[in-house]
Amino acid sequence: MQYSIWMNSRERNKDDWKLDFTKLQKAGISNIFLSGKIEDLENALKYAADFNLQIHYWIFTMICNDDNIINQHPDWFTVNGLGESSLENPQYVEYYKWLCPTHPEVQEYLRERVKKLCKISELTGVHLDYIRHCDVILPIGLQPNYNLIQNKKEPQFDYCYCEHCRSSFQQKSGIDPIDLLNPSKDQDWLKFRYDNITNIVNMLVEIIHYYNKKATAAVFPAIMQKNVRQEWHKWNLDVVFPMLYHSFYDAGLDWIGNETRKGKQLLKSTELHSGLYIPSIGPDKLIQAIKFAVNDGADGVSLFDFNAMKDEHWKILNS
Q1: How confident is the model over 209-223, as pLDDT tens digits?
Q2: DSSP codes joined into one string, 101-132
Q3: 7: which DSSP letter?
Q4: Tell me: the pLDDT tens digits for 151-167?
Q5: How far is CA 9 from CA 18, 43, 59, 112, 213, in A?
Q6: Which among 194, 69, 204, 203 is positioned nearest to 128, based on CA atoms?
Q7: What are phi and psi of 100, to 5 degrees?
Q8: CA distance 290 to 148
Q9: Residue 73's CB: how many other CB atoms inside 10 A?
Q10: Which residues contact 180 (CB under 8 A, 6 or more apart)?
């Protein structure tokens, strides 16, 4: 079974990387999903092979906080059912500025971004995160953090109603989605947005595979697919990493196993590695959480994240 971990590169020197990589190697972790600056990634790659570690560059795919794009292409961002841009009125948190998957220029931007990464020869793969639309409904355990009670789909959280999406859907269906009586429940409109995310993923996977890299993604649990427009069982990934963060759903550790099993039932050949949320798993519960995932069919386990791991967690993995 494979162990992976999400990790921010931050600014580390040679000794920092070697210290951290030694810790990962001792714990049996073989794959790192590394976010951060390209120069930090390139420094990490210099030492990873010495520790039998594989590095996948972790990108926020549909979220964009790049000032150049914000200033030059405000029309690239999604629009909610009230006509508000996620650039100007981000929901939940300030960084929730979402690119529209239907926009041709967004598609080209993502293609070029991934091609550039794939040309880094030492890189094992590209890890797609935030490969979805904004949450229509948050996990039940997170709603109190935002003083919300979400028991139905509200238009301010429902994306994307930009001109590109509206005209594209109208060409297919003859209907402008803003004219739908109940757009949040219209199956054709829902499928349209599922498919647009799926098309983006499979377009990027084709590029990643062309360069002989691994294509992976962090996704929501199976029960949440509809709330973020992710039909990830239709994605041509090598490995899918559902974020089985049980505390977000006010659930116990056994929920990890239940959701692992549901995810495996959706997939054909794609591997599933269960993502565990370390801040909600004490060191004494870590092995139990891993067992719930593995016993219900997980091909591996990934830990979120490196900074949340305490000395006691490392000791458990090393034992």
Answers
A1: 999 999 999 999 998
A2: TT-HHHHHHHHHHHHHHHT-TT--EEEEES-S
A3: E
A4: 999 999 999 999 999 99
A5: 13, 9, 12, 22, 20
A6: 204
A7: -85, 125
A8: 32
A9: 17
A10: 186, 189
d(CA 191, CA 168): 13
Which residues have CB under 8 Å from 76's CB, separation 6+? 64, 69, 99, 100, 103, 105, 106, 109
Per-residue tokens: 25: 């190697």
As beta bridge partners, residue 8 has 35
Beta-strand relationship, 300-304 and 2-8: parallel
CA atoms of 9 and 57, how far apart (whole Å): 10
Q: Which of 260, 242, 318, 255 is CA-nearest to residue 281?
A: 255
Q: Determine if the pTM surpasses 0.85.
A: yes
- How far apart (Å, rounded) are the C-alpha atoms in residues 276 and 136? 23
Helices and strands: H and E segment counts in the chain:
10, 8
